[in-house]
Design brief:
With about 130 residues, the chain is mainly alpha-helical. The protein contains 7 helices and no strands.
Length: about 130
């Protein structure tokens, strides 16, 4: 082997080591790795349940303990998330809480209209308007 070949092998080793370091660092900061460290299962719908609980409390449709228990999330985590948003406009526009409040209000208005008309046989229409986790 010549010195030139030896250098090429060493360079390849250094490059391989550096690639391993970068991959290790990347894995350490991956969503899956962070979720595992925090004990959150990304496949069980935790984020969606948490967002719904916070949204229902922010809109005033449910109490914090009820919303957290119903969706199997930590009430202290929900309270901490809500404490960061002190004004209703924090939840306005295209945010999930406002959309969910609108869905619930539409369903409630529809129920009142059906009840006023004495036409509660048409329950399918009412059920179709309800949010999935309301």
């Amino acid at each position: 082997m010549s010195d030139n070949d030896e250098m090429t092998e060493r360079e390849a080793e250094v490059i391989d080591e550096r690639i391993e370091e970068v991959e290790d660092e990347s894995r350490r900061h991956s969503t899956e790795e962070v979720a595992e460290e925090l004990g959150v299962d990304l496949d069980d719908g935790h984020r969606r349940r948490f967002a719904l609980a916070a949204g229902m409390v922010a809109c005033g449709w449910e109490s914090l303990p009820d919303a957290a228990e119903r969706r199997d999330v930590d009430p202290e985590d929900v309270a901490r998330a809500l404490s960061r948003h002190q004004f209703p406009e924090d939840y306005s526009g295209r945010r999930w809480a406002e959309r969910h409040c609108d869905d619930v209000e539409i369903a409630a208005e529809r129920a009142e209209a059906l009840d006023d008309a004495g036409n509660l046989e048409d329950v399918d229409d009412l059920i179709d308007d309800l949010p999935d986790d309301a």
